[in-house]
Amino acid sequence: MTGTGSEPVAVAATEPPTPDVSTAPGRPWWRRKRYRFGIVLVLVAGYVYAVNSSWLAGDPGEGPGVLAHRGVAQTFDVAGVGDDTCTAEIIHEPAHGYLENTLPGIRAAFDAGAEVVELDVHITADGQFAVFHDWEVDCRTEGSGTTRDFTMAELKRLDVGHGYTFDGGETFPFRGKGVGMMPSLTEVLAEFPVERLLIHVKSDDPAEGEALAEYLSTVDEKRVENLTVYGGDRPIAALRERMPDLRVMSKEIMTDCLLRYEVMAWTGMVPDACHHTQLHIPEGYAPWLWGWPVRFAERMAEVDTVVVLVAGDGGFSEGFDSADSLDRIPDGFTGLVWTNDVTEIAPLLSGR
Questions:
Q1: Is 231 helix (H, G, I), strand (E, B) or coil?
Q2: Residue at 20 is within a domain
Q3: Is the dihedral of CA 334, 340, 346, 348 positive or negative?
Q4: Among residues of the chain, what percentage have pLDDT more than 90?
Q5: Please, which residues bridge with residue 230 across strands?
Q6: pLDDT digits (tens, 9 = 90+) for 261-285
């Protein structure tokens, strides 16, 4: 071939296109590249589903147990309650004579069927631990000031039923009936030597965590095995450093555990951050957990971690406190259910 001139025009040789071997005729479909990724994706999805599916987990065993908040106590509407609300002034009309955080109230909770009773502690002026909910004594007693202002003996002289009213102050049904009823932690542990207790450190003072560790180190090891302590990040960190074998929980510990769990637990593995602790799981968040409810509870039990289901979004002391609320507890859940009304809830759960 020539152009218009005298010199021949070179024509570049063209190579035939390389055939696409992933779609070449005769190649098995399952070996074609465009299908391989889909196959791997399906296999991974199937594995994740099988590992985390509760209905494939088999019989989960016994149903949920009950965690009684403050023992048997006077109930109140938690809606709108904040940290500074005096709940003694908003109780429902009393249906029984028990007061929170007292020996009779704790005993009544276990008698009603509670597996665990939660109680609150504050350090006193003489270095003991008083079992009492409030930072200040003004709401429930005739006294004034913080628990730290008083020795344990002085707190014993106060009337813990003084401030309770259900009718806006028209009547005070427990006034004069609570003198001497604020127990020390020592008295509680002596009265309940084997029962499971959840101790709430109400302050955020690391020195209080250190003091509690000092005290618990003198308690029989077998007794300590049935205790869990939770509270502010700083006192719990101090407590954990001194007593690494004690089961503890704080917001920091729980957040660290659950974030790591969400990242890796699709494989069925449980991060070390979730070992030997306690988790309070709000029911609104629970369905987002890998393997909820059966697989999740099983995994935590295997690493010696207690799972507690709390109502709502985990706000102020929200619990499963009515028969209707129990319908929201998922089938197969085997952890603990938080309640403010153990006398009603425990019998209903035992019959499920």
A1: strand
A2: no
A3: negative
A4: 74
A5: 200, 249
A6: 999 988 889 999 999 999 999 999 9
